[in-house]
């Protein structure tokens, strides 16, 4: 089959979307290639990373079996007492998440939602999490009053992605790095930071516009570290985004959508691109011609002409020869394009759909990557950057599944390559789509006050920081708030060592990919890579992804696989379908998880990776006692629900660093209501109308059981186990300790303890260092 027929007949444009019973054979082949006997992920020789665009976790995977999605029992409750899943619009109407239905509505043709620094902060609302429908209204007039931010896809819509997650390891505590749009998150992904220095007084690049071709930055990037350590690497794209003379459809199908931020780092000299040089020469000729014919615009045209003449002078091919070999290497590897394919700039028209012209790339948009894999030249570290049409960005119809499946086809063509490859698929940010998990924030509490001018301040934007008075800023930058973590986004790791449909629930973000590369390459190649740009807090809180690699044998799932059909008509026919309308304004009584309008998540469990957490949070006469018993830092979000309707003092983000403990003072004389959220569904709720006479302490045992100790014999206590659905009455004078055999259900516990008008809820999972399951509530 020639290239043209393959692209049309393999379902390139739909790539498996909309067909729930089948999936691409690339997944089957990858699953069935076993790692070499006795090997571990340290035996891998290639890490391939594909960061796609703008989807939240709930938006994609909220209904996936075995992940923390729509069945999350202890999702945050907003100030009105309702679950965060129920959001209110400007008219006071309340909506729940609803299915967008990719096949029977035009959902994938309705463009993106607001996703910049200001509206990301507004959606967070200082942690109250109740402004999503106000902050994320569509910019398209006819869609503005639709609750699109709450729209989600399910297995029927995205079968390729769901079965990819079923086959390999999906992360349900993976957050984008910043509460921003694309560029800042991609800066974190490639460099570990959005600031030139780890200081709050240095500008935080929280909007896309502050880093581009006319505003270069130059701090150290991870590709430079690889080059300095003689570790092979490349960034593959069909073509860069720098001006070169492409038309609109060409750009959308063929260039990298400005998704390679390395183009904006001065040390990579992107403007030495030959195509850009040709473009500049033509532009100068055009401008001179316009000046001779239209003197009315002389000032503007002369300014533009000077700009291009300066470019021509600085980036003349003669100056390329003056660069060092290292500088040339940085440029050539960062901007690896498909110039070896004579059609890499060409589109071809295919059969029209609904009378509308349709195009596909004439060449192979994975040409050089495919060539290097086939010739045994795949580097140790590769980044892939897709064109807009294949990036999964909501501004384009959802064609990215083909791109991902074709990457896997390339990597599995020779089983010996896949046996030594780790493939990471993640997404830069959530676009404007809702996710229900409040992201963990840097410490800001009575015992951990950040120095906003120092390194702590690098994780915050604050008007008192020096750059607010020294830099010329856009109005869209002038908003205070934490830089991150951002909202959850999809993340799947596919490799011979991550098969079996596991869920990984360690807190991680885009810098986790860099931390993984550090860890992996340091051990494999005896190096000392360390990304100084990553803040101490982020490095401590976000994992290095190594917890995702299975040490136990797991059975492969039985899957159905995608047949080669022509899907282009299906995805493009949806353009003429109606706007999604299966959302309903809910009454007060309908705002609960039992409502017929609440989204249904697939029931069932998945195997779950062991996590590096062992910490305890209890309530005593002094307040909320928090103790970390491990080397791994643990972030928790402490809420005073009594003050949720006030403007401050309702949220206290803590981070328990290595074996660190805190006591958050609480006054309970006039009543109290506190919630604590931690990783992987860890939850505490301490609520009562006066100072309690009983103290309760929950501790974890190494085998996965938990023990409850009562320190007062004042009252009879009711202990309700939500998993066994049993309640027992306890007299602390006779039974001061109760052992809960949580180890029988993978370490999970969900306990409600009541006495008088006091109710305490303890929920979470006790870690044992062994594989467990996801939350039994989801079975």
From TrEMBL:
The keyword Hydrolase applies. Transmembrane segments: none annotated. Residues 607-689 form the Bacterial phospholipase C C-terminal domain. Pfam families: Phosphoesterase (PF04185), PLipase_C_C (PF05506). Signal peptide: none annotated. Keywords: Hydrolase. Gene3D superfamilies: Alkaline Phosphatase, subunit A (3.40.720.10). GO terms for molecular function: phosphatidylcholine phospholipase C activity. The keyword Hydrolase applies. InterPro entries: Alkaline_phosphatase_core_sf, PC-PLC, Phosphoesterase, PLipase_C_C. It comes from the Bacteria. GO terms for biological process: lipid catabolic process. Its EC number is 3.1.4.3. NCBIfam families: PC_PLC. This is Non-hemolytic phospholipase C. The lineage of its organism: Bacteria, Pseudomonadati, Bacteroidota, Flavobacteriia, Flavobacteriales.
